[in-house]
Design a protein that fits this description.
The chain is an alpha+beta fold. It is about 55% helix and about 15% strand. The strands form three sheets. A six-stranded antiparallel sheet has the order 3-2-1-6-5-4, with helices on both faces. The longest helix is centred in the N-terminal third of the chain and has 42 residues. The chain is elongated.
Length: about 600
Amino acid sequence: MDERAESWLELLLEDAEPAAYEALRQRRLAAATQEAERERTAAEALRAERLRSRLRERQQRARELAALGDLALRLTGTHQRGALLQESVAQARRLLDVDVAYLALTGSDGKMAIEVTDGSTGPRLRGIVLEPSSGLAGRVVERGEPVQSTDYLDDAGLRHAPGVDDVARAERLRTILGAPLRLRGETLGVLMVAQRRVRSFTGQETSLLSSLAAYAAVAIDNARLIERLRDHVTTVDRAVALHEDLLRAALRGGGVEEAVTGLSRVVAGTVRFEDEAGRTVATGRNGSAAVPDDGTDRCTRTVPVSSSAVRFGTLRVSTSTPLDEDSQRLLERAAMTIALVVAAERAASDAERRSAAELLEALVAGEVEDTSAFERRARTRGLDVARGHTVAVADLDGAPALARLAARHGGLSGVVRGRAVGILDTRPEELRDQLAGVTAGLGGPAHGVAGLAAAYRDAAACLSVLHALDRADVRAAPADLGPYRYLLSASGRADAQRFVHATIGPLLDHDARHRTDLTGTADAFLTQGRGHTATAAALTIHPNTLYQRLERIAERLGDTWRHGDRALDVHLALRLHRLARTLGEPPT
């Protein structure tokens, strides 16, 4: 690794600030003696900055997800409401790095009382009663969504209460952000964080506080439920068993099937989860995924499975008799947990697709700077670079087929530069039948980063040639393209250009000088089997016009251009020229 790469890498390893990258870039530019070196330095700096930003974002997302998972475990570990509330505000203060966090719960009279605080300078905040519609908390309840006040005491848009303002002034609170604790359309309270200086919370921070509030709402409601049912041991056991089963399924990544099966252990009848299109995803009955249809389930209860912004589907329970109130509550809570499971599954799937796309993009773009690190990342995604793989490139409609083959044979698939790409642990001849109905270029088998990148270029070029030849539902490697394979390599293109120039060069020169298309006329004439009527119709010109053009072609190529082997050479040269233009080659 050269000194330049070590310098960028050292900045990344040291988690340096943007100013350090800019300083290094300026030094490199100042030391550069050639324009190409300056352009290369600018490109390296841009890649390093992009990588730094990506690493920072992922580190932040990882910290937040880990913290949310830790909070879920902590909240699950206790059913004491006071401990749940204190844990919620402590986590909110820590995750959002604020001075104060506090939580107010709504009473039966609609008023809210601040029950727990974290970071306050005294006991003034705790016990404060907030009137309905007053202050920032009232605005949160009215809107049912997060609300931020950049400078609370001077915020004329809020309805202020003197006693509350006095406490805010004593605590020196400036910026306040609140999120509702909502459950089944009811606001249980408000989780708020505050800063003793003016601060603008970002959308990501607001979303994080909303997630914390959602966790707290579920945990608080679970605690309330358990408190109400403490004398009913059987019902409590059902609630605890369901909560633990579903939470374990969510944290373990067990999937929707496990969550539905767990729900069927504690709720009578047949449990089904249907996605947003109405398709049955998972079923359960008596703790088993196998569901016999015995015709005894006549009553059906449905509950939407959704987050605050996305509907994932419907949870449907069919029983012989209507569900009791306790079972309905369990069903509603289960729907929330299943929503978390589905969201986690989709997020994981999206992350896997992004990871695969990033690996493929780096490979095909030739941007793999650390081969060992790339190979390690690829192995975690199922791609062993040391093994021989076939590279397939298809249009986007071939992406599902390539994904299935990657899962079946091993390898990697994704969408790169608007095309579906698969690196598959199999040989090209084995893919032809398995990709039936898909037009694809094939490269390889190849191994190693450089080899796979070269195989991708071959496969991509093959697909372009197939499109140019109007060949659909064909899987072709370079060897399958006959004389057109010359267009796939630099030396081959050079040979093809020499052949084209020697065969039809005068015709191309004439078209270039006079802006005519005698080349197209010659191509159409030979393609139509040298039939004058068919050629005139294909070109939508009068037959006399065609005869005049053919005479001008003969003046430049000779009278024998349309006969025998000479016609074959001319036709091949015309086809190679047309393909070269389609593939973006420089004009011959």
